[in-house]
Amino acid sequence: MHLITKLFTLTVLSASLLGAQTVPAPQAGSADSRIEEVLSTISPDSIRSFDNTLAGFGTRHTTSDTTSNTRGIGAARRWIYSKFASFARNNRDFAVHEDRFVLSNVPLITRPTVLVNVYGILRGKEGVNGRYIVISGHYDSRCTDIMNDTSDAPGADDDGSGSSLAIEAARAFTAAHFQPDANIIFICFAGEEEGLYGSEHFAMEARKKNMNIIAELNNDIVGAIRGGNGVVESNMVRVFSQGYKEIKIGNREVNPEVIGYENDSPSRELARYIRAAGEKFLPTFHTTLIFRQDRFLRGGDHASFNKYGYAGVRFTEPNEDYHHQHQNVRVADEMVNGKEVKVQYGDLPRYVDSAYVARVCRMNSLTAALLSISPPAPTDDIMLVDKLEYGSRFRWDNPQRGKDIAGWKIYYRKSAQPEWAGYVFVNSSTDPVVNYDLTTMSKDDYIFGIAAVGTNGAESIPEAPLPGR
Ligand SMILES: [Zn+2]
Prior knowledge:
The chain has 469 residues and is of the alpha/beta class. The chain is 26% helix and 27% strand. The protein has helices at residues 3-9, 31-41, 44-55, 73-89, 160-175, 197-208, 256-259, 266-281, 302-307, 354-372; strands at residues 94-103, 113-122, 131-138, 183-189, 212-219, 236-241, 247-249, 252-254, 286-290, 312-316, 330-336, 339-345, 379-384, 392-397, 405-414, 422-427, 433-438, 446-454, 466-468. β13 (379-384) and β14 (392-397) form a beta hairpin.
């Protein structure tokens, strides 16, 4: 069954019981086969070759050599640029860019250093003022001593895996000549290890330009299926998302706790969207949602986007192996379970499973593709609170007057449920403002999220409606 057809045939929950209007007949467009083509183009062999090449630069430390063509961060970024440039030669909608800046007087960087984020943009029909979706990894690496910029630091998993994923996704989208509505950015960030410097610069500049980035999909350590704890898991990836810290309603700041939205930040709705899309369209590969910004006391490039008000999540393998992260490449004699054994340290390509990276790449690409052809999320969606009442009344703007929109889904779940339990479907309308009265469900007991559904079946990320009158 095609992707978009599945979208409509699965889990339409008791809409009639809830007084909702009928769900429209499935309208499978050509979009589904185009997404399938992107997903089937993603290749473990290609990811393997990218990751080997990145590891082959010896070290990609932020202050390592920039003149050699075979070793150091300079060689790595020129190679990444050349890959994106080769995709651009075969696809007129794709362009390669550098985000280049000088970093000085910051922690862990001892001298003024040029940092370069390397990226490609697949231009969408919406143009430069339209929406953007970002797929990222970071291409810098480190060994045990974060200041050591000469020793080997192959960084095959951290984060050759995420960088290879971003490059491979770009290859697949451009080779399939996928034509999105929103723009898709494929980016390899610099300077992550010393303090998220590359992504910080990119997200800050994006905010200055008020770029409409609707999702940042950060991939950092997405390569290994065997953890240092001995657990092998190849059919799952963790997705970390930040909760709400503050909500702005107009110029007013509202504590998320006042409306019970601690679990309904844009990043967390994005995480739920990824999981729901994956369960429908990539049912043999799963996401585990982790409701925290990142692993305990650690961070990644999506945090830079969160900082500037963008939804962003982190993908990471299920079980990490700390022998392979931030370690000099060496073999040590160690006592394990009472026996002396040789333990290999270092972030080597042999521990990266390219078939696994390809699965994570498909999850990213599926999400980006669906979002890129979805209608924009409802604007100014409001939970009406002009009087106390037992049900829930919603209102949202409909600037497109229903053009290309099949309708809207009001997703719901009990407050203690982690994921949406169902939805009510609201038919498309040409009214400039849409009102919907859900008399049977109390906003005290349920959380809601409103998504726009395109005539092609693709949905926007649901948004939790803010209180208004
Ligand atoms: Zn990393």
